[in-house]
Design a protein that fits this description.
0% strand, 107 residues, mainly alpha, 2 domains
Length: 107
């Protein structure tokens, strides 16, 4: 069960997120952005995902771990190759997680 303090914290974070994003969305919904800006915005989601995933793969315990025993790194690299070769999201997730679990069990 969530305490009152946690509920207020979550509500505050939601309010801040809304108040920061809403004015920008309201402004840019009325403006036609140039084509290069729209094309560049397509790279935002992969860049954000990369910024989240790569540190988690390289530093799962808080320090740099580039070795064969790092299941996060091995499975992440394999998932990247699978995704590049097959372009199949479900297959990438299933095989990546299976390899991750197998690698953790193996080491």
């Amino acid at each position: 069960m969530m305490s009152l303090q946690e509920a207020v914290l979550v509500a505050g974070m939601a309010a801040v997120t809304f108040l920061v994003r809403w004015p920008v969305l309201a402004l840019f919904s009325r403006i036609n952005l140039p084509r290069p800006v729209l094309d560049g915005m397509k790279f935002i989601p992969p860049a954000v995902l990369t910024a989240i995933v790569v540190p988690a793969m390289l530093m799962p315990a808080g320090s740099l771990e580039i070795d064969i025993a790092n299941a996060y790194l091995v499975a992440g690299m394999a998932a990247g190759i699978i995704a590049f070769r097959t372009r199949n999201l479900l297959l990438t997730i299933v095989l990546g997680m299976a390899l991750f679990l197998f690698w953790r069990w193996l080491w």
